[in-house]
Design brief:
alpha+beta, 238 residues, single chain, 4 helices, 3-stranded antiparallel beta sheet
């Protein structure tokens, strides 16, 4: 995947008239002292010095794949991770004025694009959104960067390219239901001796989706007065 980003970056830089193929070479080699001594033409070096995961896209969850026609969910997978590629772009010329001219062309080319255009993307990157920006100050190479390359400190353009990596496969989902059937039936009446307290005339009610059976006062015996009224009920005057 990274080699395709290198190719896209080279194509992007070639869009600048000052970075034409007949005028400037573009290299992705390590710009150490030996490499610099072998330069015979003006050269732009795009050295990939770090790869890190983008902190803004560390979200949990899943991505859903929907059918284009019906809109039904047909697949799912973890969220696609996004990786930042950090490049140091430097200009190598015999004259300092030419070096600054190339650096200016690099800055203009990067600032003119917020992402790699579709026209410069190789086939494996087609359709992907590859964000492009100058890296913030806190993401500059460490102080020992040039010492590790056995070279002299040089001015450069710190470039950051963010690319999504398709590392997860889609998991197929079960087809959605086409119909729903519902059935209901009456609960049987409670069975028990009529004089058993709490059993005669059970009442049913629903509470939070469940059926609750409640006991009622047993019916009065023969010759007895009327049953007590429920709590809270009003009464008429004599």
């Amino acid at each position: 995947m990274i080699q395709h980003v290198d190719r896209a970056l080279e194509r992007l830089l070639r869009l600048s008239p000052a970075l034409g193929e007949s005028l400037v070479d573009i290299s992705f080699d390590a710009p150490d002292r030996t490499w610099g001594a072998a330069r015979t033409r003006p050269t732009v070096n795009a050295f990939l010095w770090e790869i890190s995961r983008n902190p803004m896209y560390r979200s949990a969850g899943v991505q859903l794949l929907r059918d284009v026609d019906s809109g039904a969910v047909v697949g799912r997978r973890p969220v696609t991770p996004v990786v930042d590629l950090h490049y140091m772009l430097t200009a190598w010329t015999t004259e300092k004025r030419d070096e600054h001219q190339l650096l200016g062309a690099l800055v203009e080319c990067v600032l003119a694009h917020q992402e790699l255009p579709d026209g410069v993307l190789p086939e494996p990157l087609a359709g992907k959104k590859c964000r492009l920006q100058l890296a913030p100050h806190e993401k500059r190479p460490p102080g020992e960067f040039w010492s590790a390359l056995d070279g002299r400190l040089r001015p450069g353009v710190q470039l950051e390219i963010s690319i999504p990596l398709e590392v997860f496969s889609w998991t197929p989902m079960a087809p959605p239901p086409t119909s729903v059937a519902v059935s209901a039936s009456r609960l049987p009446e409670p069975v028990g001796p009529p004089d058993e307290p709490g059993r005669a005339g059970l009442a049913r009610r629903r509470a939070n989706g469940a059926v609750v059976m409640e006991g009622r006062t047993a019916p009065p015996e023969a010759g007895a007065g009327p049953a007590d009224a429920p709590a809270g009920a009003g009464s008429e005057g004599a």
